[in-house]
Amino acid sequence: HSMVENVILTGEVSFTIATLLDKISSLEGQGFFVLGNYGSGKSHLLNILSLILNDPGARRILTEKCAFNDQQNIDLPSTLQQVSKVTPLTVEISLVEHSNREYLEEIVLSCIDKKMGSGQNNHQDTPNPVLPADWLKRTRKEVFRILQDVLRQDNWGGIVLLIDELSEFLRSKPDNRSYNEDVRFLQFLGEFAEAIPAWVVATLQENIENTGAI
User: How far is CA 99 from CA 23, 57, 66, 93, 160, in A?
Assistant: First the structure.
């Protein structure tokens, strides 16, 4: 909880957190890019979001901090209360830990598979979701239909994908083919996010258009 206790709720941070939580609490699947220079706190923000979504204690601490916050136009306490009613599966994905020769789709799906089968999630009311053993061998659309069905069967309020260092990962791709495949997968995630619902939050050090020839 020390991470939440020490977070400084600037107007920009409060606005970003409130916007993301508002979309999650209203079950509106959507994708977001969080843009900032190296060392500006993007990874820290993703960690804060993960804590908020999974830990009632973290939400309580942040609500108390809002009492000393001057951002009067941002009702973060109300948003925190609303998001507490939603139980999305939260998957943290740090692309720094992966080779640039891996495909983004394989990384994301393997992290989802590990999280759903690891017993490390914080869902209180139902057992861990059980995915078919061969689900990753299906077509892309079948894979995400299976994911959607399992999340609904086990009463999860969608899925949140927190993807760190996306721009650096894309910029380091070894060839145009692998780069374009990763961009196409991002497009697919964006199109399918509303149906699951899913919220994709990816950090960038530069605009996505500047990572390559999109």
Answer: 32, 35, 40, 13, 23
Contact 14, 3 (CB under 8 A): no
CA distances 40 to 44, 96, 162, 201, Å, are 9, 16, 17, 16
Q: Which residues of 26-46 are buried (b: 16+ CB within 10 A; e: fewer)?
A: eeebbbeebeeeeeebbbebb
Residue type, 173: K
Element (H, E) at 160: strand 159-164
**pLDDT confidence of residue 116:** 85
Closest CA to 113 of 133, 98, 85, 87: 133
Instruction: Quote the Cα angle for 76-80-83, to 5°.
Output: 135
Distance from C-alpha of 6 to C-alpha of 9, rounded to nearest angstrom = 9
The pTM assigned to this predicted structure is 0.87
> What pLDDT, on a 0 to 100 scale, did the predictor assign at position 128?
56
Q: Which has the closest alpha carbon to 100: 169, 167, 155, 156?
A: 169
